[in-house]
Amino acid sequence: MAFIKEESEDLTIEEVFRVKQEDTGTQTDLMVLKEESQELNEKKDKDQHEEYCDFKTEEKSSCCSQTENTSSKKRARKKATGSSFICFHCGKRFDQLDNLKIHMRIHTGEKPYTCEHCGKKFYQQGNLKVHIRIHTGEKPYTCQQCGKSFNKKGNLKVHMRIHTGENPFTCQQCGVSFNQKGSLKIHVRTHTGESPFTCQECGKSFLRKGSLRSHIRIHNGEKPYPCPQCGRRFAHKSTLNVHMRTHTGEKPFVCAQCGKSFRYHLSLNNHMRIHSRESSFRCLQCGESFTDRRHLKNHLITHTGKKSYMCHHCGKTFKNKTAHDSHVRVHTGEKPFTCPQCGKSFALKGNLNMHIRIHTGEKPFACLQCEKSFIYKRDLKRHLQTHSANNV
């Protein structure tokens, strides 16, 4: 273009436009020639390869395999146009080839990363890194509001919803919302009736995999949760947590009306009937009501006078089974209630409960005059006599 301009400075606009068109046409022709040349070279290579494969019959399968691999790579490059790598198994797309390679392990089952502590294998190195925290106890993600720590960032994210009150997963059938997708999935089964986890021993089915795992311990007798203080083992962690209260003396369930504390939630519920006067068990003979079916049963004996439980050792009769069983231990010497801290055994559970106060330091019997407290009620009675003597 510069050469043409030097030849004549007086070219008209039409001539300049014509020259540009000619120049563009020349470039286009060169590109076409280049593409045709590439196609001829590829065809030539293919023909030479086919001739070589025909000539070398022993190596034909190997050569053709190489051709197919080359073709596959070319197809992969074509598929990669627009920065998209496609999985030929499921059609999923990836921006990077490395991500596709990692994804392919799902289809091939390859797990190249192994935990040196327990031998468990993983698809990705990141998953192994997170898993190892189970062994090391590392919890690098800490809640800024309550200080609780987690070994996974996702677990912290879910935990934060407790503080924010966010429940983003809603049941389409009843409108109940959940802070975890897994919780919603399990909840939906209550509508569908699905119980996908079945015990192979007895055929019982469960909504949750964890429930099945706990249930199987009934069959195999496994008790993986030991008490660190007395060594007693439990099948469930929740049972161990409740058991620990016998050592700590903790009574977390408090009556809002009278302040009395209880070790078990069920005990608090039974106690609340005293305040609510909920008496659903009524004696048909005298109309008296009771908060517990067992109490009503024992009451009915007062009308009949019947003592249906007889000791086979001495012939003594009792109105209820509890009194009978406690009496029989006098003959057998059985002491089924053992202190988890010192190992001392007792024939009656009530005696064990009183004994445990020695370890916990609990003194429930208080003097109203001097506020001195005692472990046993008999000690309080003896102490009260000192006040009576002083008054005289």
From TrEMBL:
GO terms for biological process: negative regulation of transcription by RNA polymerase II. One of its GO terms (cellular component) is nucleus. Gene3D superfamilies: Classic Zinc Finger. Keywords: DNA-binding, Isopeptide bond, Metal-binding, Nucleus, Repeat, Transcription, Transcription regulation, Ubl conjugation, Zinc, Zinc-finger. It comes from the Eukaryota. It is found in: Nucleus. Its main location: nucleus. It holds the Pfam family zf-C2H2. SUPFAM superfamilies: beta-beta-alpha zinc fingers. InterPro entries: Znf_C2H2_sf, Znf_C2H2_type. One of its GO terms (molecular function) is DNA-binding transcription factor activity, RNA polymerase II-specific. May be involved in transcriptional regulation. This is C2H2-type domain-containing protein. It comes from Cyprinus carpio (Common carp).
